[in-house]
């Protein structure tokens, strides 16, 4: 486990130093007060940065539990106190790219009581399971990203991130190291022309949802389940791991238990031969509407 800081933060010039200073329909705009910090963990890669200071401090976190063109995004700060969980939220990260909508969970992180958790924000347009090599965040797109904004109705909070190229590069390096830790040869995985395909995904997801632990059901809990499956050259499931759990616990969990019923097409390399590889997915479980 290790940490790294990216870049240097100069004097902070706040476009809006408090939620009360923004005009009624203008966004609350916060600028960086720290460099990006990368956490190279055993089960996830985390990129975090603070914006603003004191009572106006906000936090932006990007998490990856496996190589992907997507990342889990958490934003927190006083400006989100009137945002609602599981409500349609507009997300935008470029003036030239259309915004998209998502329904985040509401939560808190540490000293920040008001947080929104997005299970997956896609930074790109390529289908990952059909993409060649190891999925990764799009560095070319990162150069065009200058901010991340989140809005519900008239409520709008904008993080002035600046270009995200170095940050994405750090996360891509971290997730490739993760693949190596899983026991794969990174160079060989780069030769994958077609990733493993789960042929009966609807059936598997329904079984996972149906067998969600009764204790969690009774408490009305929701969850984001990160699943990694090793698929051999024959398309058979070799093992299944849930993030942040030991292999033993994961094998006893509903998600990995139901992966016994998964049917995969194996990964194919550039020479047209099947190759042992991995399949990853996130399953969001919610109760009620």
From TrEMBL:
Gene3D superfamilies: 3.30.1150.10. It comes from the Bacteria. Residues 197-289 form the TonB C-terminal domain. PROSITE patterns: TONB_CTD. One of its GO terms (biological process) is transmembrane transport. The keyword Disulfide bond does not apply. InterPro entries: TonB_C. Keywords: Signal. Residues 1-22 form the signal peptide. This is TonB C-terminal domain-containing protein. It comes from Erythrobacter longus.
């Amino acid at each position: 486990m290790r940490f790294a800081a990216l870049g240097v933060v100069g004097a902070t010039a706040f476009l809006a130093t408090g939620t009360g200073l923004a005009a009624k329909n203008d966004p609350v705009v916060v600028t960086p007060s720290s460099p990006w910090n990368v956490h190279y963990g055993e089960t996830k890669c985390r990129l975090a940065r603070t914006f603003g200071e004191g009572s106006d401090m906000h936090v932006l976190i990007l998490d990856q539990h496996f190589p992907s063109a997507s990342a889990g995004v958490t934003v927190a700060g006083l400006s989100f106190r009137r945002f609602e969980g599981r409500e349609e939220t507009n997300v935008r990260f470029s003036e030239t790219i259309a915004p998209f909508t998502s329904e985040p969970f509401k939560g808190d992180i540490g000293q920040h009581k008001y947080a929104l958790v997005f299970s997956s924000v896609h930074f790109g347009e390529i289908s990952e399971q059909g993409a060649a090599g190891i999925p990764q965040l799009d560095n070319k797109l990162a150069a065009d990203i200058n901010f991340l904004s989140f809005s519900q109705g008239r409520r709008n909070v904008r993080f002035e991130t600046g270009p995200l190229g170095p940050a994405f590069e750090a996360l891509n390096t971290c997730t490739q190291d993760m693949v190596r830790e899983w026991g794969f040869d990174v160079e060989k995985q780069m030769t994958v022309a077609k990733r493993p395909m789960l042929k009966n995904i609807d059936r598997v997801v329904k079984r996972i949802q149906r067998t969600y632990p009764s204790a969690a059901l009774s408490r009305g809990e929701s969850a984001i389940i990160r699943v990694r499956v090793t698929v051999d050259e024959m398309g058979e499931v070799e093992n299944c791991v849930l993030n942040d759990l030991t292999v033993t616990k994961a094998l006893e969990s509903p998600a990995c238990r139901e992966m016994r019923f998964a049917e995969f097409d194996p990964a194919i390399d550039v020479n047209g031969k099947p190759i042992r590889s991995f399949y990853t997915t996130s399953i969001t479980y919610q109760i009620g509407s």
